[in-house]
């Protein structure tokens, strides 16, 4: 039975949003400092609206870089940098950041908004083709892999900023660059290994991603223990 286009959009939206909302709840549950819901919703929407800005840039990159792995690296770079710039400009530059963990929460929230919109776009194809098996496969990979990837890579950047929370602005910029490098590297490696295909290859890649994710969550929880050095207490 073929679905109408409206029905396809609704189904894709529901299936695409669920994994992003699930992981968002997970990260918020692990945050001891509760951020107002209105800021979370705003950041999630801003992250989602970043997707239409990323797509044309990725198309340009793919046309300019015909080698597939280089195209994938360019895609990872564009996504991570643009997500960070937009969230940093609209959220992180404001007075919403009260403690180190806030960087992680806001960046992860924006990344999950981005992932939710991406999930919807990836699901429209198999739903349009009325391919139930492909829809299930894509949905599972997005839930276990891609959505986790976006949140973990954003958390890595957020942790880097959080560690330098009480440091001089120049130090924070350096840490931000390191965090961005690690986020791009993780994203690119994930894309390369997933693109090579094969059930075993995909399973191993997702398993490694989850191990990295567990480590990142552990570091995120420890950010709350950071205290300003006595000599540096007025840096902010």
Low-confidence stretches: 231-236
Beta-strand content estimate: under 5%
Oligomerization: single chain
Number of helices: 8
| Strand runs, count | 0
Structural class, judged by helices and strands? mainly alpha
* Biggest sheet architecture: none
Query: Alpha-carbon distance between the termini?
Result: 60 Å
Written as H for each helix and E for each strand, in order along the chain, the element string is HHHHHHHH
Mean model confidence by pLDDT: 85
Shape: globular
Rg over CA atoms, rounded to whole Å, is 18 Å
Percent range for helical residues?
over 70%
Work out the count of structural domains. 1
Task: Draw up the topology in text.
Blueprint: H1 5-29, H2 37-49, H3 51-64, H4 68-92, H5 100-128, H6 132-163, H7 169-195, H8 199-223
Helix pairs in contact: 1-5, 1-6, 2-5, 3-4, 4-5, 4-7, 5-6, 6-7, 6-8, 7-8
InterPro entries: PrsW
Protein name: Protease PrsW
GO molecular function: peptidase activity
How would you sum up this structure, described in words?
Keywords: Membrane, Transmembrane, Transmembrane helix. This is Protease PrsW. It comes from Candidatus Nomurabacteria bacterium RIFCSPLOWO2_01_FULL_36_10b. By secondary structure, this protein is mainly alpha-helical. The chain has one domain (5-224). The protein is 81% helix and 0% strand. The chain has eight helices and no strands. Helix 1 (5-29) packs antiparallel against helix 5. The longest helix is centred in the middle third of the chain and has 32 residues, at 132-163. The radius of gyration is 18 Å and the shape is globular. Residues 231-236 have low confidence and may be disordered.
